[in-house]
């Protein structure tokens, strides 16, 4: 399960389907890990023979390794998610900057347009007054 999860993590951002499969597998792996840990500790109390105790120690060791590997895989997934969120935040900030710049430029163009219309109307009034006086 952990190996499949690790394989999925490399492709987690490629499609919504893989993202959902990854999330489902993560949740399943965490639930299975929790259940196995709980059952192993319950079995530890019931182990009576030395053979059972040796087998349980091996199971504890193996489950510990899988638990550690799962933790590393989940940490890598979280790091990848944080990087993607950080990248998206930077992209949004860059887009916000460009949107602000475009709005400011548009306001400046509107001011220039308004000023030019005022100058044009002043010249029209003067031209009208010049034609009327002659």
Fold blueprint:
Layout: H1 2-10, H2 16-46, H3 50-133
Describe the structure.
The chain is an all-alpha fold and 134 residues long. The chain has a domain at 2-94. It is built from three helices and no strands. The chain has helices spanning 2-10, 16-46, 50-133. The termini are far apart. The mean pLDDT is 82.
Q: How many angstroms does the end-to-end distance come to? A: 97 Å
Oligomeric status of the shown chains?
A: single chain
Helix content: over 70%
The value of Rg in angstroms is 35 Å
Low-confidence stretches: none
Overall pLDDT metric = 82
| Total of DSSP H or I helical runs spanning 4+ residues | 3
**Element string (H = helix, E = strand):** HHH
% residues in beta strands? under 5%
Largest sheet: none
Count of DSSP E strands? 0
Structural class: mainly alpha
Principal-axes shape call = rod-shaped
Quick description:
By secondary structure, the chain is mainly alpha-helical. It has helices spanning 2-10, 16-46, 50-133.
Task: Write a concise keyword list for the protein shown above.
134 residues; mainly alpha
